[in-house]
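Q: what sequence does this backbone want?
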């Protein structure tokens, strides 16, 4: 699926390079050292390398103040050589994620987390969408899993995965139940689901007795247990019941990184047209900045 997204994005990339004379570039900000953020960055670097999109690492010390952090974001917003900016999470406790939401320019917000992009997504308007849930939808679509009228249980309500995924699914006519840490009797809900999407960061969360035969499961979990990458789904216990599932590693992860790369191209077009256009349709030819039918940032 990731390779197909890459193939379909290549023409748009070639055209934007020709149009602007610039290679789109993604700045990833890492504050301090974090193993999971570091692993995500390595996967992003690998994926951008395949696409010939430039990566600009921005490494900052944990001693950085909130003011200095905001100033870095503003500097990147104004830098014409930077197309998109991704802040790797988690941030140290003294740097709340709201700083990113408040200071990052919506046109460079390749993870779709700023109020402009999140609001536009929730209103059903063209938006730069968070790459993980968008990758999940790509997986379902690729394997022909119909969403209309289906009951999807999403576990996790973070701003980057669970909540935008629930929105995207409702926009695709699914019936969605959004669960979180305070949800009572999770199993009673997941047993009713046609599709279960798990983004909780909790190994083994979806397990024996929690899915019905023939369900489809998307696993967005990224956990390191005894040095190995595992998801949130207990596949040895429930895999035999499922019609389809996305494994960890190798499922949602590579697709997420490729959708992020595509979002850098989307941001390059947004910069050219100075507005967030319709979702990137990647035709064989003729793709340019969209007609003036949306709202700028
Ligand atoms: P991510 O960025 O992968 O979405 P977060 O840590 O930001 O991860 O969010 C985790 C989400 O998962 C939260 O919304 C939390 O309520 C939910 N969650 C975590 N553990 C459980 C659990 N045991 N049962 C149900 N929901 C959970």
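A:
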């Amino acid at each position: 699926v990731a390779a197909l997204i890459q193939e379909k994005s290549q023409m748009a990339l070639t055209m934007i390079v020709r149009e602007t004379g610039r290679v789109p570039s993604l700045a990833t900000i890492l504050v301090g050292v974090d193993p999971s953020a570091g692993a995500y960055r390595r996967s992003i670097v690998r994926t951008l390398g395949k696409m010939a999109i430039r990566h600009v690492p921005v490494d900052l010390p944990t001693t950085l103040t909130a003011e200095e952090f905001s100033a870095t974001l503003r500097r990147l917003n104004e830098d014409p050589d930077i197309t998109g900016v991704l802040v790797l999470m988690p941030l140290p406790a003294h740097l709340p994620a709201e700083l990113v939401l408040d200071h990052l320019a919506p046109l460079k917000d390749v993870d779709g987390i700023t109020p402009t992009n999140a609001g536009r997504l929730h209103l059903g308007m063209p938006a730069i969408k968070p790459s993980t849930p968008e990758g999940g939808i790509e997986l379902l679509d690729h394997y022909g899993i119909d969403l209309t009228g289906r009951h999807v249980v999403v576990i996790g309500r973070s701003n980057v995965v669970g909540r935008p995924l629930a929105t995207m699914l409702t926009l695709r006519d699914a019936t969605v139940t959004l669960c979180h840490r305070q949800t009572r009797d999770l199993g009673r809900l997941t047993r009713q689901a046609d599709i279960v999407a798990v983004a909780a960061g909790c190994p083994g969360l979806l397990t024996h007795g929690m899915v019905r035969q023939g369900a489809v499961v998307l696993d967005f979990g990224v956990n390191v247990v005894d040095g190995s990458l595992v998801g949130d789904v207990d596949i040895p216990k429930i895999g035999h019941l499922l019609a389809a599932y996305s494994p960890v590693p190798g499922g949602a992860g590579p697709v997420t990184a490729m959708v992020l790369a595509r979002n850098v191209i989307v941001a390059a077009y947004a910069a050219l047209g100075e507005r967030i256009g319709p979702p990137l349709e990647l035709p064989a030819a003729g793709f340019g900045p969209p007609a003036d039918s949306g709202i700028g940032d």
